[in-house]
């Protein structure tokens, strides 16, 4: 009984670490994430959310890809991801999040989280900003950039691997296809089996948090009647 309870607690904490270490969205050599890639294995297809996982050479942990549709404009989802300084208000366990430097092409940021029962995690990230020529499709590519992080706080593990991207593709003015790809390792002594098992649930929680905030913001609700029409299938894309 004690072993089971400890396993459950550890699994819950790993879920938190994976989800928030990977919140921000780099093209990288292992991000060839087309659905035709036979290395992807689907692990979830429920509630409008699909998740795939695959092994990564020379890594103990799997890469994850998730796809869903959110009933909000792409801009509302983009702002949710980009609103770094306010993530502590709606992202669980975030205790410190700040932008170190921002330009039109990239953002350097630092974040620290405080999940229960395990040490805090922190990391710096470099986020690359991509938009198509019409300014409609968005991509946030991210990679760890710990050179922008401050001195390591006490009782904190610095995450050394975070990379992937968010991709937003408008389907209509108020409906957006979202793709999220991430490969991360929370570090410490957490067994790889526990992390890999928790990855599916972690990404599900992350996508749901982004969905709830984006759909509930003024950015999304300003077009509420059109959103309702879209959901009823009466609006034109």
Q: How large is the share of residues in beta strands? A: 25-35%
The structural domain count equals: 1
Coarse shape:
globular
The CATH class is identified as Alpha Beta
Just name the CATH architecture. Answer: 2-Layer Sandwich
By CATH, the superfamily comes out as START domain
Number of helices: 6
Descriptive account of the structure:
This protein is 30% helix and 35% strand. It is an alpha+beta fold and 237 residues long. Strands 1, 2, 3, 4, 5, 6, 7, 8, 9 and 10 form a ten-stranded mixed sheet that branches. The protein starts with a helix and ends in a 6-residue tail after the last helix. The model is unreliable at 1-17, 24-36 and 223-237 (pLDDT under 50).
Describe what is shown at a glance.
The chain is an alpha+beta fold and 237 residues long. It is 30% helix and 35% strand.
List keywords for this structure.
disordered C terminus, disordered N terminus, ten-stranded mixed β-sheet, globular, Alpha-D-Glucose-1,6-Bisphosphate, Chain A, domain 4
């Amino acid at each position: 009984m004690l072993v089971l309870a400890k396993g459950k607690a550890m699994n819950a904490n790993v879920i938190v670490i994976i989800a928030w270490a990977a919140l921000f969205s780099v093209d990288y050599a292992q991000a060839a994430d087309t659905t035709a890639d036979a290395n992807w294995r689907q692990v979830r297809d429920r509630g409008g959310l699909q998740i795939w996982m695959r092994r990564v050479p020379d890594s103990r942990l799997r890469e994850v890809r998730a796809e869903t549709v959110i009933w909000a404009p792409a801009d509302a989802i983009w702002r949710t991801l980009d609103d770094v300084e306010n993530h502590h208000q709606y992202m669980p366990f975030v205790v410190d999040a700040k932008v170190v430097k921002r330009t039109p092409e990239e953002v350097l940021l630092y974040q620290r989280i405080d999940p229960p029962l395990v040490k805090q995690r922190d990391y710096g990230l470099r986020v690359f900003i991509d938009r198509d020529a019409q300014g409609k499709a968005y991509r946030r590519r991210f990679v760890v950039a710990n050179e922008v992080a401050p001195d390591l706080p006490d009782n904190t593990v610095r995450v050394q691997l975070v990379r992937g991207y968010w991709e937003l593709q408008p389907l209509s003015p108020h409906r957006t296809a979202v793709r999220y790809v991430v490969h991360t390792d929370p570090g410490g002594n957490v067994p790889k089996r526990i992390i890999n098992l928790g990855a599916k649930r972690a990404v599900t929680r992350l996508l749901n948090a982004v969905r709830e905030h984006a759909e509930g913001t003024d950015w999304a609700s300003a077009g509420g009647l059109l959103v309702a029409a879209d959901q009823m299938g009466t609006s034109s894309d």
